[in-house]
């Protein structure tokens, strides 16, 4: 089995092509900061070609029998398993993910394909009773048409596949633009898998480039019927405005400011273990990662002491090393941004409890205490290996602090009493929340999405199927009808 080639090219209408844009980019290994390969950005003409191919291919694909669609997804599943090591290597090299993170992501991608493989058999319609004699009232479910998918760099393959797989499985065609930091894992690797699986040409197109260069053109393109975007809230708002002006549907999963709540009857050791994972998995570069750790004042000293001990024991280094637990952040710009947030928090009165150390893009775990909910670091998504601990007094204050943000994506509550934890959880406005666990959870068959400014719509399971399809009402008048004015 030969490794995939041409991964630094755009994939348009079944052909691997150099982009015709006027900018080129170097894809850098986040750990070594050395070039993996350069690529040329797609131009607007390339994008037009991708949408033309998608629009044409989708017509026949929509009529393809469900068994044929499913066969392609089954083959993609087989290829994912066969190329597991190759995929994991790309996640490590391009995203800076540890071996553990890479294996986790591979599993999530596999499950997205497997769950989507059943969608072609569930494009069900309905028949309704009619108020008019002799009339049959039907509802048909149909694909939207052409789905635009724009994805970020942090869980690039997962966040692309969770839109690409269900979009294709429900009869749509796709134009995908991955982040410029992760064009392979977020885009061309997926195209290679489906190409090898036998997906007809034109159905999946990948255009490479920077969002600020070609993003607006993708969002506004008249062939696109829906824009599925995962990324920051400010960018998502801009997409929503542009799409709304064109009466175009959107599916948006945006930023998170997720609270991890420890009530006064929680098992501290279990809460500490969960909070270490939920904060430092993939260097905290996950939309669902813990942003604020809220601990009841009765437990805050014990929790903080144990948490700092665990944080200091995390093995930081080269993500290729199986022993590494925390690797680099994605690039130098992100490292500088995170360190600026730490500086500001300390200026505002936060106390640093860990040794502060940055080596290139490696930021060693940071734990800050004496944090208040009005500090900048508590109000903004950190997206890095920085834990902030905030104390509270009682369940009501815990919920109030958790809600004191414009975002509402995920969260967690720890308690020795499940019903008590559920009561607190039900008072928090968030799309997802987990009891006696941590907020980084994603099941391909379970609803995924946020409230407030954390997004619009839902991913996974039947929820994304609803988003990527539309309905048509058709009636058949079997008996002659009298029309009286």
UniProtKB/TrEMBL annotation:
Source taxon at top rank: Bacteria
Family, as annotated: Belongs to the aldehyde dehydrogenase family.
Xref: Pfam families: Aldedh (PF00171)
PANTHER family: BENZALDEHYDE DEHYDROGENASE YFMT (PTHR42986:SF1)
Organism: Fodinibius sediminis
Protein name: Aldehyde dehydrogenase (NAD+)
UniProtKB keywords: NAD, Oxidoreductase
SUPFAM superfamilies, alphabetized: ALDH-like
